[in-house]
What we know:
By secondary structure, the protein is an alpha+beta fold.
Amino acid sequence: MDLLGSLIGLIILSPFLLIIAFAIKLTSKGPVLFKQERLGRNGEIFKILKFRTMVVNAENIGDGLTVKSELDNRITKVGRILRKTSLDELPQLLNVLVGEMSLVGPRPPVTYHPYNGYENYPAWAKKRFSMKPGITGLAQVTVRNSVTWDERIKVDNQYIDRFNILFDIKILFKTLIKIFKPESIYLKNSQKDKESTISN
């Protein structure tokens, strides 16, 4: 399902992907794609692909990894739309195609957050790495960024316990709805461990 879904998705969406790429290049300096090391299945490191939504080197400017709101001046004009609709995640269809990710699964964290390295995750949290990471997942269509990372990991573990193909299809449909009705992208409060991050 992952192979077929990602291949069909890339073929159907290719004109749309080119339009987004052109818009990014036209409105801000820097590469079209943002690449970042993430933790995948069993803690293996891979490079995730996203459309760039922020200025180059954003992680080392201002609030660093934290993105408190859509008013963050590091976010580009096109990037603001892409982040709100999660369309910046579409290049991950290539990650799925090569077998690094699945269409549905726990979102892959950066190597150093919320824990510094796979080996530093508590035993209960390592369960989320027993499956390939997904472009979308149960946490993305339920809590998204409205809870702490540990609470999101608990939701990921619930997904693993409930895993089946029909459940994945349901999550994919809910993801499409979220594109047109985005929510929980940023928190109104400023608790660091609950804010949206560049790594999401």
